[in-house]
Amino acid sequence: MLVSALFLVPFLFMVVGSARMPGQAPPDGFEWLPQPLVWSNYESVFSFVPLARHLVNSIVVVLVAVPVTVVIASWAGFTVATTSPRRRRILIGLSVAALMVPLSALWVGRAALYRSLGIIDSLGTLIAPAFMATTPFYVLIFALAYGRVPKTIYEAARLDGPSPFAIWRDVAFPLAKPAAFAVGMLAFVWHWGNFIDPLLYISSPDNSTAALTLRTLQTLASTTTRRSSRGSFPRGPTSG
């Protein structure tokens, strides 16, 4: 917990910086509390961009995409772990090969697929990757977790004649809760911070997400800084 607390330092620095007066010069070192403390910055954000609506869009995407990712990746990982050794090697090899494909190589193909499905410029384009487990890496995490379960447990479960789905639901998945939690957290971070997909496939401002909106705020901040700098310093050869 002490080591994890170190990762909260940048977040604390961000919160402190957000309460600074706009246009105020940055401090020389770490500043515990800015002087003056300006909380009205958070109220001003909603006047620049529709942040509330975009936060709701991101929450909807996460609430749908994360559970779907966990379930689909868990099914695929269970298949990899319980199939024959030869098929397991083939499936793992295909998963690793898929991980080596650059994400940029899928952009055009996904755009054409989304357009043919009629979900372009909607939240469906951001949820659709979850139905493919989002990334093969999550499948490999579940495959490793299920592979560590003794095979005698699976064999004992098959004696009662249940379906593979029942074995996954009643035996395998409860034993892989740590893997499910890890994949859920990773999927949450991925879908919440997804910036490229909204930028490529979303054109309506009402369907934008928080990640894209925060980037817009950063652009507005840099533009405002440049304008204020031009207005506060004299122009000409004596400005240096």
Describe the structure.
With 240 residues, the protein is mostly helical. The protein has a domain at 54-204: MetI-like fold. It contains 13 helices and no strands. Helix 4 (51-82) packs across helix 8, helix 5 packs antiparallel against helix 8 (136-147) and helix 9 (151-158) runs antiparallel to helix 10 (164-175). The chain is globular and about 70 Å long.
List the helices and strands and how they pair.
Blueprint: H1 2-6, H2 9-18, H3 40-48, H4 51-82, H5 85-99, H6 107-117, H7 124-127, H8 136-147, H9 151-158, H10 164-175, H11 177-192, H12 196-201, H13 210-232
Give the full name of the CATH homologous superfamily of the domain at 54-204: MetI-like
Low-confidence residue ranges: 231-240
Rough outline: globular
| CATH fold naming of the domain at 54-204 | MetI-like fold
Mean pLDDT: 85
Question: Distance between the terminal alpha carbons, to the nearest Å?
Answer: 49 Å
Task: Name the CATH architecture of the domain at 54-204.
Answer: Orthogonal Bundle
